[in-house]
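Before relying on records like the one below, remember that each one covers exactly one chain. Contacts with other chains, cofactors or solvent are not represented anywhere in the record.
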Amino acid sequence: MSKLIEYLVLFIISFLPPAIYAVWIRNTEKYEREPWRAIFISFLWGATIAIVASLILETVFSIPVYASFGGISASFILAVIIAPFSEELTKPLILSFGAVKKEINELEDGLIYGAAAGLGFSATENLFYSMGFLEYGIEMFIILVIIRTIGGCLLHASATAMTGYGYSRYLMGKGNGIAVYFIIAMMMHSLYNFIVSVNIWGAGISIILAIIFAMAAIKHVRRKIVELDTNKDL
């Protein structure tokens, strides 16, 4: 029973903050807010299918990398290239499916649904990480969970929102620049992972810089949602 309670607590810790963030992002839009059903579908996709699909891609791509490079170099390539590519490719795919796609009728909608999918992904990722964090003791567990809750969640939301924005622009006839916004999303994700992985400034400063970067990114996304929501001609 104690194990069951432990897993329940870990689930709540992992999923509640991303869910709150999703509500926060959705409510940034004041006019014609997105339906909860489509938000939930995007979040659920990120938390389930996108996670599995990205793991498969990362495994496939990492095999030749680990065969060609040493362990440390391969891990670095996995963190800053393979993972960002695989995750930013699978998370926003839900926007092209009927239940969500039919709700994208404004430019800001892609930002919102992309962020929701990213937050769902981060929720499950947080659950996996938190299970491992327990072995470091309760104090370190709390610190690591806070870092994941702020940095990881906001990064996933803001990066995938970029691809979502590119897709909504395509649907609205504003140009076929999805690939450009996907590259931006991947670069954001890659930069975040690079800051965390490379201990140039010291572990503590690296983490602070990564969190600042994630917070700045989500601030930009929310500002863009407000801007588009109040000016439909953009």
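The mean pLDDT is 91.
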